[in-house]
Amino acid sequence: MQIHKVIKPAFVERFKCVGAECLISCCQGWNIFIEKKTHHRYLNADNTQISSIAKAHLRPTRKGKNHYSVITFDTQGQCPFIDENKLCSVQRELGEQALSPTCAIYPRITRRYADETRHSMTLSCPEVARLVLFDADSMMQHESEQLLANAKTNLIGQRQPVSQVSQVIHLFAWNLIQAQTHNIEENLMALAHFILYLQRIEFNLHQRFDEAQAYYHLLLTDLQTGESLLTAQPSAQSLALKVRALAVLGSLVANDASRDGYVTQGHRQVAEFLNVAELQDGAALGEKFATIDAQWLTLRQTSCLAAPHVLRNYLLYKIYHSHFPGTDVTTVMRQFYRMVLDYFYIKHLLSVKSLTEEVDQPLVLKTLASLAEKTLHSSTLDQRMNKAIDMINAGDDLSCLLLIG
Ligand code: SF4
After folding, report:
1. Cα dihedral across residues 254, 259, 261, 262: positive or negative
2. Ligand 1 atom, smallest distance to 124 CA
């Protein structure tokens, strides 16, 4: 027997699919694979509506039994099982238990380790994004314990445990982001400083834990007393890095084929606003980014992003969902870079939008869900994001500090 910890944040416990009310339904625009059992269940269903849609729209892929067929969409790019009321006809006619694992599981994600299981959900579902951002206590974690029998513990024994060092870094990172401040970017910068410190001590927390803890307390005090860690003036180097980051995100993220066009359209607006090719000099570029910074400040103070938990919950979600820093602590700065890039991109997409339209909850949720669809649902994602960062950072992951603030 073994005690196994199960962790569920509040947003996972509260989630309910909103179906027809959804801002961007998951039943459109991407590959929905059907495994062999479900494929035959649909084809042979007594309900003739389901069986005839299955005959017309399940295309065999011959990629093994888990990806036995794929649903071909109708002329509007929608799943053909969705009815005129935007409801799933499989669920309505055959019941929830008849859904394919892909449809039944989405947007849930479970990470299993030797001693714990962590439940999460993907932000590509706008309802998940709404719960995470706008429920003040969405990231509160509920822990329970399971007593597992020997057969299961044998299986679990094959899974990787989370090292103590990873767990300690995770806790420090969590607390630095959670600390109450007037500007969440100060929290991000504090975390950057802490990661740099960990690199200096070569992640040797076994022997240098007390020193690391003392440094963490120093950073926490800075955050609590309002001592700013951000650089006051953007340098020419930071402006050039921001242009490079946006160009790379445009080609590797925004242009990626997807279920919706929100990020692609938002990116086009950012490019048109900056209009870098037509700018006379660096000062003109500086003014453009100053306008974006001013818009972002206004959004953080007066829009639906203004409540202190909104952006904080977003970053806490990032830390929880990736189980930052993961199993390989030496990649911690690279993982942090990705977190900063996401934040940086959302800031620029929403700030430029706010020049022409109101940034309200639906707009924020569609932007976040669209970006998550492009950055969380791809087997080549890690490769693509690493390539993107290599193109942005010119060999120095520390450059991400120039993207904050
Ligand atoms: S994206 Fe989420 S809320 Fe929308 S239909 Fe899919 S599961 Fe339901």
Report:
1. negative
2. 1
